[in-house]
Amino acid sequence: MTINIDDLKDILSRVEKPARYTGGEYGQIKSPENAPFYFCMAFPDLYEVGMSNLGIKIVAESFLRRGYAADYCFAPQTDFGDAIKRADIPLYSLALKKPLKEFDMIGFSVQFELCYTNILYTLDLAGIPLRRADRAGGKYPLIAIGGPCAVNPEPLADFVDLVFIGDGESADADVAALYLECGGATDEFFRRAAAIEGVYVPALMDVKYDKDGHICGFEGDFTPRRAIIGDLDGAVFPAAQPVPNCESVFDRSIIEVMRGCYRGCRFCQAGFIYRPVRQRSVRTLTEQACSLIASTGYDEVSLNSLSTGDYPRLRELIRSLKDSLPEGVTLALPSLRVDSFDSDFAQDARKISLTFAPEAGSQRLRDVINKDITEDEILNAAESAFDIGYSAVKLYFMLGLPTETDDDLRAIRRIVDLIKSAYGRKKRAKALRVSVSVSTFIPKPFTPFQWEAQCGESQVEAKQKLLRDSLYIKGVTLSWSDYFTSRLEGVLARGDRRLGYAIERAYALGCRFDGWTKQLNKEAWTQAFADCGIDPDIYTRERGEEEILPWDFIDMGINKNFFLRERRRAYEATVTGSCKKGCAGCGLQGVCPAAKGDR
User: Fold this and answer.
1) Which sign, positive or negative, has the C-alpha torsion 129, 131, 134, 135?
2) Does 357 lie in the same domain as 322?
3) 354 has pLDDT over 80
4) Nearest of 566, 598, 580 to residue 307 by alpha carbon
5) 74-91 mean pLDDT
6) Using CA atoms, how far apart are residues 400 and 184, in angstroms rounded to an integer?
7) Does the pLDDT at position 203 exceed 90?
8) Domain boundary pick from 196, 220, 244
9) Of residues 515 and 342, more confidently modeled
């Protein structure tokens, strides 16, 4: 079955941004005819968000290179979703116009916990039963998830068949080949899939609880292990990518400079779950950038990674790109540490506002979180930026960090004052604009802070008031994250399988697009937890170091003892040096070339 866009003309004429749903992008994905396996890469957020995601394009490319069909689907805004549901039109993929329920596998890229209800929303619009048990025996696609949230997949465990953990492009097409070999989603298929590195089959894992409701053990024959690609130069990368029909969140070409981070900030999940650092060569990156610019017509290339300033050959890369790309193409460096700020690069980049993330106001608290930067480095980076023409600075901080005091929060004012003073020491054409954004700290799995409590509402409100009073300054704007949103993210991030009932109930009560402030239905979520007899505070509390955590059965390659050591070093305000300075013994033996084992 193929959906005819002409049949949707009436609906498309009445919805916001109809180009989200028509497909036909310049350079749209092309699949072989009569392919043996059909894969749909689903992104549980809006088209313009998903089309900016490089990961989904890499995964789709990995299927295409094996001779399989691949296509995209994005969560439709509710105006379109409601309209096709009323018209009994199933949700479809963009290029093939194929109903999702006719694919062999649907893989969701889950970047953010607040997208969980959108996964159910997508399945519902596709006419696919939400729970795995309700799909058993029926002719439905395999439902899989991957992405950063897959490191704790348990809140979604009862909805999905497969979980891809780690570098998904290394295992996904292998699963497709196994599916064809086994003749579909048979018991043999699931048993053999569970043995593939980077694949977790929730149906083959049982969770045991004690009388107090705490996890007391796991029962399963397989230990899911993260898949890690060692050679990024040889890894899949789509040389041509579709150009969105409407402006996307990041409307530019994107290349991945490196994967992983040297630093080890104790709050940062990405810094641990993407270890070790793997780099692409200057030659490969230059070839990829030139290919993308030629195939898309973009005039900007973004050099993406967790900390691109740490790329050891950054200056050489910039020279190579400037020499090779057409005149007028600019470079963007979205991920920038204060201590790796490169004014030569910034001079060539577009003069947009500059973003730094000190994360904490005081040196003591920066040492606690292992954000190894000093006040002088922050100030020097700002002065360098001002000298080459920048007149706007964004500063990112967190509140509610472990051991945080009011003095730590007041220290944010000192950083702002120093930056303003540095700008005022020379005559400037424009007035300085400083934006201070403060998010609430959320403990995440596979970090040294995975055991910490998350601040309650009264604590957060008091801290926000202190900051508001402290930063009431001309030329400075202050914003912070919504408490309920942060709390919900924290609940889902460290949740277990029992949360699946609340997610399903919240969806039934109308929750969709929970990551969008205007669409988050706080009352429905509160009712969902109450209806399911779940106390959210169970998931935001401090965890005991001996407690079994919902994600403990997953082998991410990092030893749990390392996280415990780092937690204790945090409470001593002791900094652990970056991987560049020496191995800290996180446990990635056999994967990281510099690893010395778990110390």
Assistant:
1) positive
2) no
3) no
4) 580
5) 98
6) 48
7) yes
8) 220
9) 515
Spatial separation of the C-alpha atoms in residues 454 and 380, rounded to whole Å: 33
Return the pLDDT at 345: 61
196 and 86 in a common domain: yes
**One-letter amino acid for residue 510 of the chain:** G
For the chain, what is the domain count?
3
pLDDT band at 484; cut points 50, 70, 90: very high
d(CA 325, CA 302): 13
- 510 φ/ψ angles, rounded to the nearest 5 degrees: 105, 10
Structural domain contains residue 580: no
Q: Is residue 543 part of a domain?
A: no
The number of beta carbons lying within 10 Å of the beta carbon of residue 377 is 17
Residue type, 402: P
Confidence of residue 560 (pLDDT cuts 50, 70, 90): very high
Give the pLDDT score at 289: 97
Q: How far is CA 105 from CA 88, 185, 312, 578, in A?
A: 22, 10, 39, 40
Task: Give me the residues paired with residue 258 across strands.
Answer: 279
Q: Left (φ > 0), alpha (ψ -120 to 50) or beta: where does 411 sit?
A: alpha
Distance CA 314, CA 309 (A): 7
Q: Are residues 319 and 364 in the same domain?
A: no
Helix, strand or coil for residue 317? helix
β-pair partners for 443: none
Residue 237 structure tokens: 């990368």
Mean pLDDT of 474-496: 97
Determine the average pLDDT of the residues in 388-394: 88
Residue 457's Cβ-count burial label (10 Å; 0-12, 13-18, 19+) is exposed
Over residues 418-472, the pLDDT tens digits come to 999 999 888 887 899 999 999 999 999 999 999 999 999 999 999 999 999 999 9
Rounded to whole angstroms, the Cα distance separating 214 from 156 reads 18
Q: Domain boundary residue among 283, 315, 335?
A: 335
Amino acid at site 363:
Q
Give the CA distances from residue 3 to residues 18, 57, 362, 468, in Å, rounded to whole numbers and listed in that order.
15, 23, 57, 52
pLDDT category of residue 250 using cuts at 50, 70 and 90: confident
Q: Quick one: 39 and 146 in the same domain?
A: yes
Residue 118 has pLDDT above 70, yes or no: yes
C-beta neighbour count of 590 within 10 angstroms: 9
In terms of C-beta density within 10 A (0-12 exposed, 13-18 middle, 19 or more buried), how is residue 211 classed?
exposed
Instruction: Tell me 74's DSSP state.
Output: E
- Which of 591, 581, 580, 583 has its CA nearest to residue 562? 583
Higher pLDDT, 549 or 582: 549
Secondary structure class of 107 (helix, strand, coil): strand
Q: Are residues 198 and 102 in the same domain?
A: yes
Average of pLDDT values for 304-325? 93
Q: Are 40 and 93 in contact (CB under 8 A)?
A: yes
Residues 358, 324, single domain; the answer is: no
Mean pLDDT of 569-585: 93
209/207 Cα distance (integer angstroms):
7
Predicted local confidence at residue 336, as pLDDT: 62
Output the pLDDT for position 400.
98
Check whether residue 158 and residue 207 sit in a common domain: yes
What CATH number is attached to the domain comprising 86?
A: 3.40.50.280
Give a yes or no: residue 569 inside a domain: no
Q: Any long-range contacts for 543-546 (C-beta under 8 Å, 24+ apart)?
A: 543/450, 543/451, 543/494, 544/451, 545/451
